[in-house]
Known about the structure:
This protein has helices at 2-28, 65-78, 185-193, and strands spanning 32-41, 51-54, 84-85, 95-114, 124-128, 131-135, 140-159, 165-176, 202-209.
Amino acid sequence: MIRSIRAHSRSWAWLPLLLAALVLAGCATTSTLSARVTTFSQWPSGVEGQTYRFDDPGPKQAGNLEYQAYRDMIRAAIGGTGLVEAPAGSGAARFTVRFVYGSEATQVIVQEPYDPYFHGMPGFYGYNRWGWGGFYGGPTWVPVPVQAYRKSLTVEIHDNQRGGAEVYRSTATTLSERDGMVQAMPYLARAIFDGFPANNGQVREVKYKRD
């Protein structure tokens, strides 16, 4: 009798773990991207239609195809601000745009299921109305450090009519389980200019549905 109770308990013991695995799999394949955006702004009024130009990328980025691709993504996102990119070879633009980006490995804490039954420690063993036997108490959730990648984009805009003063600075960051900037960059660029010019010192969370 005791043997049958244990066998029955083990047959059902997989169910909570299976459900937990399905939940974790759903989180890992989510179709949304979340980003944290920190913005500092002293944006001048009445500058719609004014021109901007990207800063000289410097020798390290000159001819870098990845850098050029990200610049195009930022260019598309700036379009909603009312600024217009100065034509190549034209005179000085009102604003200069600079940007830096990067991806770094980090650790985050996630909650994962821990089942003492499958680690040689039954949740409870004692007497019940069916006799002596084991009881499955289900898994507990424990904090586990896992590796993740923090991807960031910072955009600065300087006003050349005010001696090159910085009038807009925004940083967008996101965490993911995989390295690589190319998938995140369109959304980070969008987050930088979402709600432009925002309030000075504003910190906000944004979420986008992935294409």
